Write the structure tokens for this entry.
Amino acid sequence: MRGFRIWAIVRFRAKVSGIIMNHDRPLGPPDTATLIKNLRRPDRAVVTAGMPYATGPLHLGHLAGTHVPADIYARWLGMVIGRKNVLFVCGTDDHGSTSELSALKAGKPIQEFLAELHAAQDRTLKRYGIEMDVYSGTSREECFEPFHKPLAQDFLRKLYKKGLLLKKVSKHWYDPELKRYLQDRFVTGKCPNPKCENTQAYSDECETCGMQYSPEELQNPKSSLSQATPVLKDSVHWWLDMWSVSEPMREWVTKSEKFWRQAVFNAVIHSLKPTLLISKDQEENFKLLKAELPVHKSRYAAGKKIAVQFENKSDFNKAISLFSSKSIETKNDDAWAYRSISRDVLWGIPMPVDLDPEMQNKTLYVWPDSLIAPISFTKVALKNRGEDPNNSKLYWNNTKSDIYQFLGQDNVYFYTLMQGAMWLGTQENSQKYPDQGDYQFARNVFGNCHLMVNGEKMSKSRGNFYSGDQMLDEKKYHPDQIRYYLALLSLPEKSSNFDFKNFDERNKFLAGPMNAAFEKPISACHSKFGGVIPKGELDPKIKDETQKIIAKYLRNMDRGEYSTLLFLIENYARQINSQFTQYKPHDDRAPEDQRRNALYSCFYVLKNLLVMLYPFVPSTMESLRKSLNLPENVFRVEELNIPMPFDHKIGPKLDYFPAVESSNQV
Ligand SMILES: [Zn+2]
């Protein structure tokens, strides 16, 4: 964030000049107004959250990994640039074998099956206060024909024209009884990873260990449709060439290092820095050549190889010539850069057969389908608002608009490398960094790690699987309690545990000290000051603490880092309780001045809490807003640090965080 860099420079200069000039101005962080003024303010922003399959209810993992953090972020952006300039779009990932197979098992026509689950998911999101501008789905009537199919086919035509689609014959599983290809989840077998025991791995990926592989590597395959043993059969597919456009992508990811999550950055840059493989037998010759080679890093790699990684393609090409001049054989380590993007299934977006008749009866693979989908959803959202759907360009093809994507860490590959390559492939010149009018790279890609529940991976058989609705209906929690706790778990850094005991501890804090911080000033104001905020002076210590927490808040919200921040906000709330202990504004016997100053200071803290906590617990803050009798547009960063005015009449005390009942205990 710009503001913080400037802060660092100012501090440094001040230190140096302080010695020479002995100036008398106190040094410290810039004031809150400057920090707020320097916040990044794009004209518009679009927020996307990983798309669930419409094959089951939304569960805690969905909410924790994508929907809740994305909603917090969309609300935060709304506080900075105005919610009307932010589009938060999502929908179900309808195509592909997962949906087809689930509908088959349920014995229902696929669209009927998906519609029911979609409606249930939409309801759950609303119950959790996840305020999307649209929750559509790739196959839905409002999306597929008018927007999604033509848009996806347009992408394919452009990629084809740019030569980014390579035609390859590859082996695929085929059910000899049903006479059909068995894509992805229609085949199960033993995971090829020798360290993994999963016997229910799919054709191209294992959900247990996360490995991705080609179909022929799957062991002991079985057709999920007929239980027959499938055979491998050749099939022609289009493969996306990500290698040829890796340089502009490397530039994008390198530029993003300062503000992307470390795990996301590392996962992507590793692929984008070009790597050569040489035989370990050549180790001595390699060492002799090291001094002449461009900047590089080397390590041992599988298959008795040495991997030599370069900073860019120009260095990489120089190295190839150098190795070749010494008769050292090299191989490009580019397996990441080619993925097939068509499938032999009928449920999906038809491949354009006019480009290639061999694409008959094939559809677009669900991953590229779902990467384009948020643009289609944007068009649906705009149409629903009565705007021109083509205004989606103002969000996706505009250098003054920011794109933020929330997803599971496992999916980072697709949302960075595959999406980046697809975006570049639509440009007139796909080698250049996107300009105004081109599809823009995401400003940030927020990868989140897995949520564990009670210390284990969530699964129905372990009895620790909780749908979002179950948490509300059966366990009787309030959505804001869950939102708050999910934000506290530091999923950005590691897999985190939803531990019901800790969860209830947190809820006790919210129902106890946090509610007390809200209620005490409101009660004292009504009982002792006629419901009007008294004239007083801010406690300097509180003012100082406020500057610090706001600086931290602005920085962490921008980065989507909520865990430590919420603990600091909790501490900040304790200021109210300590003012009550010290100056007793509720007690007529305490000195009048002190009581007025304390209550005035408490309302100042309370208003800052109201604004800061709003993205996390919006419905609770809505109640608090009514109690403070502040206008609906108070949820803006500019309202931070601004005290409530003297003589402002407050509203009634309401219910805030619910009490923790013993029935909630596990
Ligand atoms: Zn596995």
About this structure: The radius of gyration is 28 Å. DSSP finds 20 helices and 21 strands in the chain.
